[in-house]
Amino acid sequence: MLRSALSAIVRSLPAEVVEAHCDGPCGVYDPASARVAAEAVLSMTKKLKAMEAPAAGDTAALAAYNTFSRYVAIKEEEAQKTKKELLILWTDYFKPDHLATFPDLHDVFWKASKLCSACKVNIDQAKAEELMAAVEKIHGMFWTSKGRNDAWVTAS
Predict the structure, then answer these.
(1) CA–CA dist 147, 108 (Å, integer)
(2) Is residue 25 over pLDDT 70?
(3) Closest alpha carbon to 32 in 135, 111, 114, 147
(4) Mean pLDDT for the chain overall
(5) What is the spatial distance between Cα 154 and Cα 147, in angstroms, rounded to a whole number?
(6) End-to-end distance of the chain based on CA atoms, in angstroms?
(7) Angstrom distance (rounded) from CA 130 to CA 139
(8) Is the pLDDT at 20 greater than 50, yes or no?
(9) How far is the CA of 122 from the CAs of 1, 3, 58, 130, in angstroms?
(10) SS3 annotation, the chain
């Protein structure tokens, strides 16, 4: 009886709407973390492509295989981080009213998420560069939605 009375009281109370990337009330969003992760994907892809296959019977082969597997693991982890950060922006920050300003918002995010997956399963520099371009476009959309025109800064 007490439980049902408390449930009725809780249901009748007005609830304040809260929105944030962490499902808490902080309201802090920034595409920078997606950019950093995407840059790591591109960097690891370049490193993988630059590796030379070890010669058969080469005593350094194990070290090369270890380095290769580490680069692949980092590339895949960072691609997953990129996807997570983009999905947070897409699902938690951007709202239906943003579609008036960015009619291609859903398409841009959907394609960027697909590029994250492509970068995880391939060693394809073109895909990694496409991912960087998509993150750059999302970066611009985000800051435009905040009334700012923050410049895109790339690592050297």
Answers:
(1) 20
(2) no
(3) 135
(4) 87
(5) 22
(6) 66
(7) 14
(8) no
(9) 59, 54, 26, 13
(10) CHHHHHHHHHHHCCCCCCCCCCCCCCCCCCCHHHHHHHHHHHHHHHHHHHCCCCCCCCCCHHHHHHHHHHHHHHHHHHHHHHHHHHHHHHHHHCCHHHHHCCCCHHHHHHHHHHHHHHHHHCCCHHHHHHHHHHHHHHHHHHHHHCCCCCCCCCCC
User: Quick one: which of 32, 34, 29 has its CA closest to 146?
Assistant: 29
Q: Please give the domain boundaries of the chain with CATH numbers for all domains.
A: 30-145 (1.20.120.400)
pTM for this model (two decimals): 0.78
Residue partners of 131: CB distance under 8 A and separation at least 6: 38, 41, 42, 79, 82, 112, 115, 116, 118, 119
Would you state the structure tokens that stand for residue 28, as one six-digit string?
């802090």
